[in-house]
Amino acid sequence: MITVIGSGPAGIYAAITASSLGEKVTLIEQNERLGGTCVLYGCIPSKAMLHPLTLAYELSRIGIEVKIEYETLRKLAADAISRLSKGVEYMLESHGVNVIRGKAKLKGKDVEVNGQSVKSDKIVVATGTLKPTGGIASDDLPYLEKDFNRIVVLGGGVGGVEYGWLLRMSGKEVYIVEKESLLLPKHDKDLREAVTNQFRRIGVKLILNSEGKVEGNKVILSDGKALEGDLILISFGRRANLEGFEELPQDEGWLKVNEYMETLYKGIYGAGDVTRSFTAHEAIHKGLIAGLNAVGIRKAYNGQVVPKVIYTMPQIAYVGNTEDGECVKVNMVSIARAIAEKETEGFVKICFKEGKIVGAVAFSERAEEIITLIALAMRLNASLEQLLDFQFPHPSYLEAIWEGVYEALRQRGK
Length: 414
What we know:
Elements: E1 2-5, H1 9-20, E2 25-29, H2 36-40, H3 43-60, H4 70-94, E3 98-101, E4 104-107, E5 110-113, E6 116-118, E7 122-125, E8 129-130, E9 150-154, H5 158-169, E10 173-178, H6 189-201, E11 205-208, E12 212-215, E13 218-221, E14 226-228, E15 231-234, E16 239-240, E17 250-251, E18 254-255, E19 268-270, H7 280-294, E20 308-310, E21 315-320, E22 326-331, H8 336-340, E23 347-353, E24 356-364, H9 367-379, H10 384-389, H11 399-411
Parallel strand pairs: 1-2, 1-7, 2-3, 7-19, 9-10, 9-15, 10-11
Antiparallel strand pairs: 4-5, 5-6, 8-16, 12-13, 13-14, 17-18, 20-21, 21-24, 22-23, 23-24
C-alpha cells in the first residue's frame, strides 16, 4: 500500500506511476477540488487569463486595439480550473487510485486522516507550498471579484514579472517594487536589461533599488515614502507546506530528499514544490521518480537541464548557465518569420563551451519552443556541428537557434 499526500502534479504522477506498476495507491487531498496549486491557483488559471491578453498584444502590433475586461479573464480562469480539476479526478479514477479528502498528518509510520489511520508501506509527501502573507498572492487573482485599478506588486522576480505583465495588459495601473536595479534578479544581465526596458515601455511603473513594507493598503518604501494601491500583490515568499509532517527532516525549511526522492525516514518520499522546486514540469518528474522508487524501481532524478518559461509577451525562457563560456546573440529583427509577423522585439542568446551549448536565454516570440529545443540538445549532448547539420524549417522562429550556432562556429573559425 502506497499513500500519496497531495493532488498537485507531483502527487498525481507519483500515484498513477505506482498504480500502473501494480501497487494499491491511496491519495489524500485536503481540498474539495483536485489539482493542487498548479490547477487551482497557478499555472492553469494564469495561462487561461494570459492567452486573450497575448492575442490582444499581438493584434496591437498591426494597429488593432482590443480591450479585455478583467471579469472576462476571471471567467476564463474559472472554466479552465473546473475542466482541469475534473480531468485530474478522472485520471486518478481511471488508474484505480483511491482518493480520500481530508487533512493528513504523519502518525508513526502511517498517515492519519479524518481521525482514521491509513496503513502505508510507503508514503509520498507532495504537499506543495503555502502562499505568502501580508497582501494578496497570485493564488488570489483568478478569484478576485472586487473591482480594482491600481495594484502594487512587491518583488520583480519571475512571479512579479509574469503577473505584472498580465495586470498591465488587462488595463490596470501597475507598480513593481524591486530591491535590485533591474527586474529578474539572478538572471542573465542582457535579459534583465531588456525586460526592464520593455516593462517601462508598456507603462509599468518601476520602483527599483527599493524595498517595501506593507501597511494596510499602502507600501512604505525604503525612502519612507508611501505608495497606495487598491491591492498589494506579494510575488515572493512561498514556503513549504509541512503542516502535519513537521517532524520530517528539512533543509532551510524545505523537505529534504536525495536524488531518489527519499527523505531521511525510511519508506517516506518527497516530491514537488515541497522539496524546493517551483515549476510543474519539475514536480511531474519528481513525482514520477518518487513513484518508481516507492515500488522498488531504483531511478535518480535528473534536474540538470530544465527549461523554464515566463509567459509575458515577448515570452521569456532560459536554461543552463549563460555566465560560462562564450556567447552569441541573435536579434529577432534578423529572423525572417519575425519580420513577416512584426514580432521583431527581443533576442536569443546562446552560450557554448568546448563545442557544446551550456546555456541560453530567449526574450522573443516562441521563446518557450526555442529554449525547449535548446534544452533537449543540451540533454542529448549535441555538438554545435551536429546542430548546424540539422535543417530547421524556414521561415520559423526556431531558425534563431541555427543562426546562433552558425555564428558560434564562424567565430571559432569552423
